[in-house]
Design brief:
The protein is an alpha/beta fold. It has helices at about 75-90, 105, 130-145, 150-165, 170-175, and strands spanning about 15-25, 50-60, 65-70, 95-100, 115-120.
């Protein structure tokens, strides 16, 4: 078995983080909405292609989250996100960041901060990543069934949706905790 933790780091010093990213843009997601029985509500769907990417990481045990809005998904954007996660890890602790197997997550070009390790999920298993539920909730409540005027409008909507979610008391813990993802000391 491959060792995920660096030498000298004990399980009691580890925080488990779940990382993912979501595209938000003008050709967005359509979701269900409330409407009077028997009616057929109309929702506008844009044809433009402007989008942004919301990078997010959650630590259910600490009820913390780190998010960034980036113009692209690539190694440089992932590197910046890892640096933000590392800055949120308290002194003397280590974060194991669980991520899917996207190329920019596992590339050897990433320079992992000393207080982070990456743990890839098994292939084709998004259901194991609680960050997926965050995207579902943000889309359902804030980011779907709407039109964006330009890139800045998309970024503003992403920031507002993310901040509303993380500013809600215990939202990360309630939505993202899993009984199988608890590290015993």
């Amino acid at each position: 078995m491959t060792r995920v933790l660096p030498e000298g780091v004990e399980v009691g010093q580890v925080d488990l983080w779940f990382q993912d990213e979501a595209r938000v843009g003008q050709q967005g997601t359509l979701t269900r909405l409330w409407a009077p029985k028997g009616s057929r509500p109309r929702v506008v769907r844009q044809q433009q292609f402007v989008s942004a990417y919301l990078f997010g990481a959650v630590c259910p045990a600490r009820d913390e989250a780190v998010g960034l809005v980036m113009p692209w998904v690539n190694t440089a954007a992932m590197q910046r996100h890892l640096e933000e996660i590392a800055a949120a890890v308290p002194e003397g602790r280590h974060a194991v960041v669980v991520a899917d197997r996207a190329g920019w997550h596992l590339t050897p070009q990433l320079k992992l901060p000393a207080n982070l390790s990456l743990l890839p999920l098994p292939a084709a298993s998004p259901e194991l990543n609680p960050a997926e539920q965050v995207w579902e909730q943000l889309r359902q409540n804030d980011l779907s069934n709407r039109c964006y005027s330009d890139y800045e409008d998309i970024v503003e909507a992403c920031c507002k949706a993310w901040n509303t979610f993380v500013d809600t008391a215990s939202a990360v813990q309630k939505l993202c905790s899993r009984t199988w993802a608890v590290l015993d000391s």
